[in-house]
UniProtKB/TrEMBL annotation:
Record pathway: Cofactor biosynthesis; adenosylcobalamin biosynthesis
Residues that span the membrane, as ranges: 56-74, 81-98, 151-170
Chief site of localization: membrane
Presence of keyword Transmembrane helix: yes
Species this chain originates from: Pseudomonas cavernae
This protein's record includes keyword RNA-binding: no
PANTHER family per record: COBALAMIN BIOSYNTHESIS PROTEIN CBIB
Membrane topology summary: Multi-pass membrane protein
GO MF, one example: threonine-phosphate decarboxylase activity
Similarity comment: family membership: Belongs to the CobD/CbiB family.
Protein name stated in the entry: Cobalamin biosynthesis protein CobD
Compartments reported by the entry: Cell membrane
Length: 306
């Protein structure tokens, strides 16, 4: 069965079912990761936390056995194709992205700023209690663009390249980065490997996503913002994605934000009017159109190389 058909099946399953309400495999994986971190993230000298080597060991123990299992199951006769589809479904977050973002836009349209702050607080790690309408819309739009890359397109990329083991490898690595990839006393050393591996796995997909956003939006502006603004962003992968996405939408994103009580002075991304609820909806539509474009490319590629 072609990768395009399997990819379409995984996307369709996500659209129909969304994330499992109970028994999500990533929840169980998160518990495994927490247990490994408790056992292996030990002080290496007084006042300092974590060994890089222990972080590498924890990453290997968490990711490689499950990736190998996915490879074995995907090779089983008769049901291997089903394993492929289920692996992609478990890694995708397209429907979930809309389920989190659209209620923020609805709350803003209804004038309920407190509810909008609460809902965007479920999507982002920044402090949301003092955000105004524009700040809430900006944070949500940024989250849609960035998580569209991480939770949708990168999963599709690694699935297209390596099938079930590829998408499992990527999604588990991305989850560990979200759990361990912080620059603080607890994780700066232990989480170093998780952060660097996730950066590597996302490098090419992020740039393909930036190109996708540009092609499906205000192309010239998106390409200019990508070229001039992305290098100023602290993340090598989020910069291109968010700069191109903001340019594609013709909206101004970025700027100062408070994370864990500290003010971070971030550069402005994009160009145009301040963010509003319409931009949240437009960002989600941009991601959805991009998924259809990628599936079309996969179908054409499968046909040419059949």
């Amino acid at each position: 069965m072609s990768v395009a058909v399997l990819g379409l099946a995984g996307v369709a399953l996500d659209a129909l079912c969304g994330e499992p309400k109970r028994g999500h495999p990533l929840v169980a994986f998160g518990r495994l990761a927490e247990g490994l971190e408790r056992r292996l993230n030990r002080p290496y000298e007084e006042g300092a936390m974590g060994w890089r080597s222990h972080g590498v060991m924890a990453w290997l123990l968490a990711v490689l056995p499950l990736t190998g299992l996915a490879w074995l199951l995907s090779r089983l006769p008769q049901i291997g194709w089903l394993v492929e589809v289920l692996a992609l479904y478990a890694a995708l977050g397209l429907r979930s992205l809309g389920e989190h973002a659209l209620p923020v836009a609805q709350a803003l349209r209804g004038g309920d700023l407190d509810l909008a702050r609460q809902r965007v607080g479920l999507m982002v790690s920044r402090q949301t209690s003092e955000l105004d309408d524009v700040g809430v819309a900006r944070a949500t739009t940024e989250s849609v663009l960035e998580n569209g890359s991480d939770a949708v397109f990168a999963a599709l990329f690694w699935f297209a390249l390596l099938g079930a083991p590829g998408v499992v490898l990527y999604r588990l690595s991305n989850t560990l980065d979200a759990m361990w990839g912080y620059r603080n006393a607890r994780f700066e050393r232990f989480g170093w490997a998780a952060a660097r591996i996730d950066d590597g796995l996302n490098y090419l997909p992020a740039r393909l996503v930036a190109l996708t956003y540009a092609l499906l939006g205000q192309t010239r502006l998106a390409l200019r913002c990508w070229r001039t603004q992305a290098p100023q962003w602290d993340s090598p992968n989020a910069g291109p994605v968010m700069a191109a996405g903001a340019g594609a939408l013709g909206v101004s994103l970025g700027g100062p934000a408070i994370y864990h009580g500290e003010l971070h002075t971030r550069p402005v991304l994009g160009e145009g009017e301040p963010a509003g609820p319409a931009h949240i909806e437009q960002a989600l539509a941009l991601v959805q159109r991009g998924v259809w474009l990628w599936l079309l490319v996969l179908a054409l590629g499968s046909h040419l190389y059949a």
